[in-house]
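Human: If only I could read C-alpha cells as easily as an amino acid sequence. Take your time, and here it is.
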Amino acid sequence: MLRCHTPPQCGPAPVRGRRAAAAGAAVVRCARGAPQVSGLEAAPAPAAEAKAEVRPSLAERLRLGSLLEDGLSYKESFIVRCYEVGINKTATVETIANLLQEVGCNHAQSVGFSTDGFATTTTMRKLGLIWVTNRMHIEIYKYPAWGDVVEIETWCQEDGKIGTRRDWILKDLANGEVIGRATSKWVMMNQNTRRLQRVSDEVRDEVFVHCPKAPRLAFPEENNGSLKKIPVLTDPAQYSRLGLVPRRADLDMNQHVNNVTYIGWVLESIPQDIIDTHELQTITLDYRRECQHDDIVDSLTYIEEGEEKSMNGSASAVVHKEEQQQFLHCLRFAGTGDEINRGRTVWRKLAR
C-alpha cells in the first residue's frame, strides 16, 4: 500500500504510459516528488493488517548488520573512512574501539533495547540505571586500511552478579581473516547517585534472554591476556603527559567522558620513538572512576619489565625485546592524585 504523508498538498497527476492506462490506475503526484499509484492494485489494506505492520527505521534498513539466525549474536560490516585512519594510513585503535561500541549498541537496539541510552532496558530506564565500562581488552592482529570493509560479530552474556560481558570478533570481509578480538565487562550504575548497583532479576530477565546459554568467549585460551591483572603503580613514571583536559565532545549521553577517550589519553604518554617504530597490538584498560568535563587528568607510563611478551597468553614464544615493547599506564586526577584508570599496552615492531 502506497501512502502520501502530505495528503492536503497532493492531487491527481496526468497518467503517462500504456501500463498505467491498461491497469485502470490513477497516478497521484505527491508534493514531495514521489509518484503514488492508486486504484485496484493499490487498494487500502485491512485496518487490522495495517496496524500489525511494524516497519524498521530508516537507519535499520540502511545498516549493513543484522541478528544471526539464532538471535543470540549480531554481525555488522563497516567501511573504514578516511578520517578514521592515522599516520600509517590504517584505522586507529580509537576507531576500532568506537566501532566496537557502535556494533554493541546496534545489537542492543536490534533486540528492542532503548535508543536513548547505551543498551538500557525498560526496567533500567524506570529506575534510572545505566551501563558503564569496567574493563576493556582489545587485540589487533592486522589493522584495516582506508577503504577496507570490517565485519564485526558481537554477543553479550552474564558475568557474575553485578555485570555483563560483551565480546567481539573482527574479520576482513574481503577474505574472512580474523584481524582482531575484544572482550569487555560492564557494570550497572545509578545515573542520579553515580553509585554502582547490582543487576536485579528483572533486568536479568530482560537482558540474558538474548544471550548464549553456554559460555562463548572471544578469548577461550587459558591464561590469555584479557585475564591478566594490572598492578597498582607506585614508582615514578618514566614518561608522562600532564594536564589533559576533557573536551566537550568527549562527553557521552551518560554525562561523563566516554570510555574511548581514555584510550587516547593513555597513548599521549607513550614515548615518540615507540610511536615511530611500533604499532599497538594489545590494550587492556581497567576503569576505576568516571571523569567529568571539568576534571584535569595526568597520563603516566611505565616500562613493564620481566614479562614474556607473546600473543593471546601463549607462553611458548618469547618475542625479542626489540620486536615488542610492553608498558603499564595510569590515568589520575591532577589535583588529588586519585586513580581514574590503569592499563597495559603491548606494541609490535612495524613491518617496513
Residues 1-44, 313-319 have pLDDT under 50 and may be disordered.
